[in-house]
């Protein structure tokens, strides 16, 4: 076979398919090959005995071959060669995504047997996570071109640091093949040193173990020359700072670029992808990537950015915000490289489901199969602050068939309990305050640094840049230690050196044409420690108020008197300031005491990954699960019984409840007290990954409908900072709708995208599809209206689950109660579960034909009639006013009109629906780089 033969070729035939694998494409014995079309299985072929794909080329016949896939993925299940291993090799998977045109001609590759990267024609095996911040840009990378492992896969740097803590004579001269055992053996009788050694091991980010890396951080300052956009670290020219702030409005021109935000960000991300490809030595830019976003960037703004980025080609997703991505990095470090050690260490300090730890609730803790910690993440960047309280749960998901096997199957399940942030709160605001202070101390007139709308703006821009650099240096130098220290600033003429190495230089910009503003009146000034502390105080107070409120709200959602915040994670470039970290930590402990939360949390900060950790953590949550098997896979059970353990990362539960309160504005200074949506409110999951929640109350029609998002309980009046979504209409239209009896309702999805529902009565559904036979139910499920204008009602309660419990029956909370109204537009019930049977509560002896709220006086002798089994994949049950029952795979569409005024003459249940727009706009007064500072 020639050397240039593709590593993988798939040939489709009428009844079977051929799969040709070049030697080493799959580094092990091939046991099974699946061909998928999206999520549907087209072909599954098991090979007995396994085919060795590492030793020789493999030509495999795949049967059955049901159809030619339109979105093909080839999944190869194999076991690596581990002749010297003490345990059998675990099952591994290699995934190859193809375009339909790739079948039979386009080459694909996978890892080589020796672990070195194979030559790839495209980056299909590279996952990328872009974090474009206000000040810095970085990319996390998940590289599956090289998949390898080790029985002792502890980070080398962490092991070396651990070794340095112990006396030299305790270690052998040659390297131990098992560092974990070595540390344990060499620290017998020295528990303090053993603890410190393991802290060093777990303090090292295990990037190599998870095939994760990151690019070098770049400044987010841009250089724009015509249509060319580059990063200031890679090009020369006039710097454009703080471009990320223009995500608020992509249609306006970004000053100094000649480009709209839409055009600019398309070029920025395209260039970023090229730079990542250069660092990874890829033949072209990455075509599949995820993009992080600030927590408070509304969904319609995210949608606009995604539309821009998807024009670049490939797959672009935006699912994980910055705070959650930072938490992903902390989780990766927490469990370490050897996850069995990591899980054990996690369990010892974690809480059982009731909220107590081993020393607080020993009985409950020892019986638990799940343990969790409450992690408060504070990500403070240059322009934004993101905060989230995340319940980090490790679940023992070992299948029951494995019993008490020596091998265990653990699942890491993070869940966001509460989140929020600020779009104009971060290190740049502190620099702007010091900029203003320095300008006054140096005797520079405010107008000399303001260049917006000035005809000859270049000299003022240069002065602004020079003074900004000096203010930023004062911030880093004066606030780098735990307590502020005084900083001297000395000005100098262009080309001259500043005397004294301890002074921050402020070089007056050169002006060849004499148009520069007058020189400063002072040549040297000092920013005192007290002045720095004063500038820091307001920022610390605002961040502490935000984080404390989110923590309180999240703990209230989680319930349980034993719950509190266990760890606080500081991340983001601005957290390099030790004074800022100390101020926030002290403020949070005081706030927790006043809120009756335990102020005993641990603080975590990794200076090395303060910025890059967000990108790495996003990759960890987004892609690492690809290398984990399914706990329900029958092949896993024998491996668990033989002592092999697994860890799966399940990020699908990140957003299963709402993370904030949403209130409708009632007047200019108040909102309705009853929230539209509440923090902790569960989201109903649908097939395909979508989730939603319906508003709990209806509201009168108003010309201006404004929904505010409150990270912290809405003690303050609604303002632009809390405004989340709006809809406006003419007052005359609102009056007509109100007279016609139209009310206002809302719906929200997992991305906090709010849909406005204007409706008459209760929103109705287009109920179509086969009817379920209910003739066995006496008089039917639905009782007719008692009088004109009244709704039909349920005659019997509907139950989803009924259990035989010894003597008698036990049912869970009914899906719907007898007597509940059945609106004209129908009743829709969510019944997502594995095995569902619908029951109706039969009436007791002597009962009439009316509505039966109880099925007899004695609960021990209740009876239930069986309606039907809900087919697999059907998650909705509908019941219309005539008593017709139906099952649905997707939520039915609503009965809608195209314009609000069409509701005036519409029947009850008809709806006008529209996704609301955010009230976010670009505010130049909050942008220090707009030329108005």
UniProtKB/TrEMBL annotation:
Gene3D superfamilies: 3.30.420.40, Actin, Chain A, domain 4 (3.90.640.10). It comes from the Bacteria. Transmembrane segments: none annotated. Residues 80-122 are annotated as: Disordered. Residues 109-119 have a biased composition (Polar residues). This is Molecular chaperone DnaK. It comes from Streptomyces alboflavus.
